Amino acid sequence: MHPAKAECDRVKHLCEEPALQTLIVGYGSIGKRHAQNVRSLIPNAELTILRHRRPPGSDPASAVAARVVYDIQDALSYSPQLAIIASPAPMHIETAIQLANHGVHLLVEKPLSDQLVGIDELLSICQARKTVLLVGYTLRFSQPLQTVRRAIAEGQIGRLLGIHAEVGQYLPDWRPHADYRQSVTAQQSLGGGALLELSHEIDYVRWIAGNVRSLHATAQTLSDLEIDVEDWAELDLQFESGVSGHVHVDMVQRFPVRCGKAIGTHGTLEWDLMSQQVHINSIDSDSKVKLGNHSGTDRNLIYEELVRHFLDCIEGNAQPVCTGADGRAVLEIVLAAKKSAQTGERIDL
């Protein structure tokens, strides 16, 4: 069966006529990725792209969308049914509230925002309107991390005692064909910095170990990069479950790393998301054993899964795997980490 036909079968109602009015807000690197995936996964989507600034000359977004608009009222005039918000984090909530008030289902890219203002209002509107609010922490769709979470839940390493997550990559290598200094990541005013931009790790340790009770953090700018944000942060976490945690994020490592470890009373799990490998050492075996058979390292797969899940939630076939409340909780941790880094104190959440 053709992949596009298979997707229509999974979300039959959404793929029937009339066209599904779909809005993408923002057309940076992640907006472009979502636009291509929507075109691939929802053949009958009529795509509108909302940009906050009109580029000089012809707009390249017009090549992939039915229309490109530069004002949210123009976007609303086409009655979008679902929207993917992929603009800089400080712009998320204001746009999301306007769309939610019109009953639009929302997929908001991570982080949900760079501040807590307006988030509770957004959550209340979505609850009242019974619309989907999904936050785009895509590592929840990572097969290796799903294997890790399942193994811990099944008690394969006994009772969880501690969890460590690490991510690092030299910022200019993130998007080699663009000037890193102009990126969202490099600018505080656009919600950049290692803590917000690499908050996937914060989300997934919370997904695995539960709510965070308190934390102590350091955040610094250690490199010679031309940025006005932190490029290195360490978080010491205490979870409500009693689990101890540590998260390291940086934008300076010349050789990319994305890995972690979970320590339990009966063994240890280790994962490497660059190679998509998970291994377990337990008292039940004499050596380290590979868990799962995970498919490749195509980064786009988890973004496709995110869109599929979004459609399933809209159809009522699933509940958001990462809710607005989850996105809020991650942001609370990030803001607490920044406060702790400034004051040197341990912060209770």
UniProtKB/TrEMBL annotation:
Superkingdom of the organism of origin: Bacteria
Pfam families in alphabetical order: GFO_IDH_MocA (PF01408), GFO_IDH_MocA_C3 (PF22725)
Gene Ontology MF terms in the entry: 1,5-anhydro-D-fructose reductase (1,5-anhydro-D-mannitol-forming) activity; nucleotide binding
Leader peptide range in chain numbering: none
Domain Gfo/Idh/MocA-like oxidoreductase N-terminal, residue spans: 22-137
Domain GFO/IDH/MocA-like oxidoreductase: 146-270
Top EC class of this enzyme: oxidoreductase
Record keywords, A-Z: Oxidoreductase
EC number from the UniProt entry: 1.1.1.292
Protein name as it appears in the record: 1,5-anhydro-D-fructose reductase
Species of origin: Roseimaritima multifibrata
Lineage, highest ranks first: Bacteria, Pseudomonadati, Planctomycetota, Planctomycetia, Pirellulales
